[in-house]
């Protein structure tokens, strides 16, 4: 397993380091770093409808040069910033996680950011004070499983209620933990679940 870190977090750190400046003044180091990160996201928009193989090739062709320039920019300027400043910490964070930030180049299925995942869990994060008391550790585990199932169903265009209903009907007696085919058929992206539970 390889970790794939989020470029949205890097970009946000550089954005937070940008300070107000007078009109017409020279572009700051924070703005340059932010511009490099934004360029990666602009390329990603253009690759959105490609299949994974095409996306990987396009990333290597167009984003690899942007990344090389970004890392050179950090190497050239990290010594010019105060380590505890917002810009210094943004540069250090990127440099410390360089390999993990470039993992997405290895597979066209990997995303450049985890914004989709964060947006999926936001409703639960916002409401967590309402259900802070799960009753027991097992209750908390059960809740986390159900939340994951609901959001995964939504992400795959399924009606969450219908998906949970199907799971509760199919899982008992299926021996899905040892039967790989049974497990695959219950995944929210399976043809069976798509046919039974898709939002019309």
Automatic annotation (TrEMBL):
A Pfam family annotated for this UniProt entry: DDE_Tnp_IS66_C
Signal peptide: none
Domain Transposase IS66 central: 2-141
Domain of life: Bacteria
TM spans (from-to): none
Sequence ranges assigned to domain Transposase IS66 C-terminal in this UniProt record: 148-189
The protein's name: Transposase
Originating organism: Kineothrix sedimenti
């Amino acid at each position: 397993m390889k970790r794939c870190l989020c470029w949205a977090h890097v970009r946000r750190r550089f954005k937070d380091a940008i300070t107000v400046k007078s009109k017409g003044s020279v572009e700051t180091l924070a703005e340059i770093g932010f511009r490099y990160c934004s360029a990666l996201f602009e390329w990603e928009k253009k690759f959105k409808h490609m299949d994974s193989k095409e996306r990987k090739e396009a990333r290597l062709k167009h984003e690899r040069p942007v990344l090389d320039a970004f890392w050179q920019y950090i190497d050239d300027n990290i010594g010019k910033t105060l380590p505890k400043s917002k810009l210094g910490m943004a540069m250090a964070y990127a440099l410390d996680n360089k390999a993990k930030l470039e993992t997405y180049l290895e597979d066209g299925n990997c995303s450049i950011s985890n914004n989709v995942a964060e947006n999926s869990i936001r409703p639960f994060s916002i409401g967590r004070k309402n259900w802070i008391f799960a009753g027991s550790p097992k209750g908390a585990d059960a809740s986390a499983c159900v939340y994951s199932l609901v959001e995964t169903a939504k992400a795959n265009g399924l009606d969450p209620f219908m998906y949970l209903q199907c799971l509760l009907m199919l899982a008992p007696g299926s021996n899905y933990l040892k039967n790989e085919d049974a497990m695959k058929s219950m995944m929210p992206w399976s043809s069976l679940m798509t046919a039974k539970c898709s939002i019309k």
